[in-house]
């Protein structure tokens, strides 16, 4: 396997995958590299279901190995929200800042010890032959009351890692690529990938 398609139009995610795959000398393409890819309706109720929906659709279209991820933020005090709606929590067409603002407003008055949260990443791998694998990775932390840091994307500026005393947006990319929910999921997927390579 010399090339893999990552089923995402998120440039930030694509870069993270490029970095992870570079050590295996595998070329990474994302949906940003192809024209006229129809939007895939992600109507699953879990991260795993959504990742599989995307991976199956793109593998069928390109007849190549595809990895799709569905990831997001689960906040304990919000009963797991935003969950699978993380990217569009503040409404369709809204941006990261709007999503962060909504989460912070919903957590107003909630004390630090009750602001536990985790980033979740489900990775689905689908081959042209129809073989499927799904793994889940997590990264535990807390939600702050304000944004700190300028690295990363999404909810990174409010996601605090107590053991580092920094937010996900305050740590360098190489460190994030070791600690993140995506790195955790990818580590679990490596055995499956090695068999394909």
TrEMBL record:
The protein's Enzyme Commission number: 3.6.1.66
* Positions bound to substrate: 8-13, 71, 153-156, 176, 181-182
Q: In the UniProt entry, which residues are flagged as the active site? A: 70 (proton acceptor)
Q: Which reaction does it catalyse?
A: ITP + H2O = IMP + diphosphate + H(+); XTP + H2O = XMP + diphosphate + H(+); dITP + H2O = dIMP + diphosphate + H(+)
Under the heading InterPro entries, the entry gives: dITP/XTP_pyrophosphatase, ITPase-like_fam, RdgB/HAM1
A GO molecular-function descriptor:
ITP diphosphatase activity
Q: Which GO terms describe its cellular component?
A: cytosol
Q: Give the binding site residues for Mg(2+).
A: 70
Which GO terms of type biological process are on file? nucleotide metabolic process; purine nucleoside triphosphate catabolic process
SUPFAM superfamilies linked:
ITPase-like
Reading the lineage from the top rank, the first entry is: Bacteria
Cofactor binding notes: Binds 1 Mg(2+) ion per subunit.
What are the UniProt keywords, alphabetically? Answer: Hydrolase, Magnesium, Metal-binding, Nucleotide metabolism, Nucleotide-binding
Q: Which cofactor does it need?
A: Mg(2+)
HAMAP family per record? Non_canon_purine_NTPase
Give the UniProt family note.
Belongs to the HAM1 NTPase family.
Outline what the protein does.
Pyrophosphatase that catalyzes the hydrolysis of nucleoside triphosphates to their monophosphate derivatives, with a high preference for the non-canonical purine nucleotides XTP (xanthosine triphosphate), dITP (deoxyinosine triphosphate) and ITP. Seems to function as a house-cleaning enzyme that removes non-canonical purine nucleotides from the nucleotide pool, thus preventing their incorporation into DNA/RNA and avoiding chromosomal lesions.
> How the protein assembles, per its UniProt entry?
Homodimer.
* Name by which UniProt lists this protein: dITP/XTP pyrophosphatase
């Amino acid at each position: 396997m010399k090339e893999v398609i990552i089923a995402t139009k998120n440039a930030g995610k694509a870069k993270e995958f490029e970095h992870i795959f570079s050590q295996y000398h595998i070329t990474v393409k994302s949906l940003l590299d192809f024209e006229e890819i129809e939007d895939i309706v992600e109507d699953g109720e879990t991260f795993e279901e959504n990742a599989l929906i995307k991976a199956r659709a793109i593998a069928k279209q390109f007849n190549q190995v595809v990895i799709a991820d569905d990831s997001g933020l689960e906040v304990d005090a919000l009963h797991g929200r935003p969950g699978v709606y993380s990217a569009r929590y503040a409404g369709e067409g809204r941006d990261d800042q709007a999503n962060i603002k909504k989460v912070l407003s919903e957590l107003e008055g909630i004390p630090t010890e009750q602001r536990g949260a985790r980033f979740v990443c489900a990775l689905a791998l689908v081959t042209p032959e129809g073989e499927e694998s799904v793994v889940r990775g997590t990264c535990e932390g807390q939600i702050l009351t304000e944004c700190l840091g300028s690295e990363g994307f999404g909810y990174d500026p409010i996601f605090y890692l107590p053991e580092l005393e920094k937010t996900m947006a305050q740590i360098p990319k190489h460190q994030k690529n070791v600690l993140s929910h995506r790195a955790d999921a990818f580590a679990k997927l490596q055995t499956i990938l090695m068999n394909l390579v």
